[in-house]
Amino acid sequence: MRxxxxxxxxxxxxxxxxxxxxxxxLVGKSYMQTFPAGLEMIRQGDPADFLHVMLEGAVELxxxxxxxxxxxxxxxxxxxxxxxxxxxDAPYLMSARTLERSRIILxxxxxxxxxFRRDTEFAxxxxxxxxxxxxxxxxxxxxxxxxxSRERVASYLLRQSRLLDDAPSYRLPVEKRxxxxxxxxxxxxxxxxxxxxxxxxxxxxxxxxxxxxxxxLVDLAQPDTLxxxxxxxxxxxxxxxxxxxRWA
Amino acid sequence: MRxxxxxxxxxxxxxxxxxxxxxxxLVGKSYMQTFPAGLEMIRQGDPADFLHVMLEGAVELxxxxxxxxxxxxxxxxxxxxxxxxxxxDAPYLMSARTLERSRIILxxxxxxxxxFRRDTEFAxxxxxxxxxxxxxxxxxxxxxxxxxSRERVASYLLRQSRLLDDAPSYRLPVEKRxxxxxxxxxxxxxxxxxxxxxxxxxxxxxxxxxxxxxxxLVDLAQPDTLxxxxxxxxxxxxxxxxxxxRWA
DNA sequence: CGAACCCTTGACAGAAATCAACTAAGGTGG
DNA sequence: CCACCTTAGTTGATTTCTGTCAAGGGTTCG
Lengths: 248, 248
Fold this sequence. Notes:
Two copies of one chain form a homodimer.
Chain A: H1 6-10, H2 20-28, E1 31-35, E2 40-42, E3 50-56, E4 59-65, E5 68-75, E6 79-81, H3 83-88, E7 95-98, E8 102-108, H4 109-118, H5 120-146, H6 149-163, E9 169-171, H7 176-182, H8 187-196, E10 202-205, E11 208-211, H9 214-221
Antiparallel strand pairs in A: 1-8, 2-7, 3-6, 3-8, 4-5, 4-7, 9-11, 10-11
The first copy, chain A, binds a DNA duplex through residues 148-150, 175-177, 185-192, 195, 206.
C-alpha cells in the first residue's frame, strides 16, 4: 500500500476519530488493489469478506435478478461501500463493477468487527455511517415510489446543480444509460423525458446540463430535503471530501 | 410502565445483551404510551427524539410528498423503529400512524446515544440492527426496480406463505389498499393483478390467500434470497419473536 | 338504517417498455 | 490517415402496463 494514501484514508469520517493504533492494525491487515475498468469486482451473493474503500476511480453498485439489471449507486472517492454486509458477515446484496480504472483498499471484515468492539470512537463512526446509508436509501426509495419518472429526472438534474453550489451548468457525472437505470427507467425513456424538460427550465446537450430557468425547474421538481437530502446523492458528483457519499 | 412488559423488551435483540444497569437506566428515562387506532404519531420532518419500541398493535410507516403518500413498512410487536434517525439525531424521513390501538415505549434518543458509547454489547446490537435494516430496504428497493408489479405481488404472496412454514393458506396481514401502496401500485391495479394470478397458482378470496399450485407460483415469482430474504419482510406477518422485523 | 369505507369492475387516458432504425462519437487496426 | 467497428444516444412506431375516473357491491359501525 502506498504510504501517501494513508492520510487520505485516515481523513475519512469512518476512520478519522479512531485510535491510531487501531487504525494501523486495520490498515496493516488490508490490501490495496488496482482494478481495470469494466471489471466485476463483487458478485451479489458472495460472502462479504472485505470492506471496500475507494481511493481512485468509480464503481457502480448494481443488482441482478433473472436476467435483468439495475444500477443502485455509483461510488466515487473517497468513500466506503458494502459496510452493512461486512457488519452482518452476510452475502453481498449487490454486485459491483468498476466504471474506470480504480484503486481500492480492501479491509478484512473480521478485523473491522473486532476493532468495532474495542474502539468506541470507531463504533460511533460505523454506526453513524450506517445510519446515514440507511437514510440515503430510504430517500432514494421514497423518490422512486412518490415521483414519476419525469419528476425524478427533474429532481436529479436540479439536485446535481445544487450540490455544485447551484451551478447553472455542469457535466453529468455518469453516462445516460446508467443514469436511466439508476432512476428506474429505460435509456429511451430518459432521452424523451429530457427533451420534454426543455420547456421546464433545463436543457441537456450531450453530457452538459444547463439550467435555463431555475424557478420553472424547481416548480416541476418540487425538491424536498426529506427526499433529495441535504446530503449528497448515491449518484453523486465526485466533488467529495466533503461531502462524502455514504453507501454500505 | 408496566413491569411485566420489561422482560419482553429485554428479550429484543437490541437490548438482550446489554448490561443490566444500562438497560435499567435506559428504561428509566423512557415513557410508555398507548395510542388509539388511526393516529399520526410521527410526522416526517420532525426531530427524532425517541426510539420507538412496539409492544402491542401495529404501526404503518409511510412517506408523503406533494399530496401523494406511500406505505414504506408496517411494524408489529415486538420490534423497534426509526433507529437510524435517532442515531443521527436527524429529522424523521417517514411518518408513522397506528393501524390499531398500540402500546409503544418511547426511549429518548439522547440516552440511546450515550449508552451506545459505554456499552459495547449494546453498540454491537445497534449496529447489527441497523445493518439488518439497511439490507432489508436494499432488498425492497431491488424488488421495486427489478420486478414488475405482477411479479412483486406473486413474490409477496409466496413469501408470506414461506414465512408461515410454507402454509398453503393464510390471511393477509394488512388490508389490500395498504398492500398495494407498499408494493408500489394502486388498489385497482392490485385487484386486477390478483385476478390474473389465479391461473398461476394462487387465489385470493377477501383476506384469505390460498396457494393452489406452488410450483406454478414459484415459476412466476422466481423467489431470490437476495431480494425476498431469509429474513422477514417489512410488511410481515406479526408472527414475530422470532423472527423480528427490522426497521430503523 | 344510513354513512363511511374497502374492494372490485369497467372504460378510458396516460405513461412506460419494447422493437427497430438511424446517427454520432470513439477506438482499433490496417 | 482512413476505413471499420463498436457503442451510446436518439427517434419513431407500437404494444403493454399503469393510473385515473366512475359506478356499484359488500361490510362495518355508529
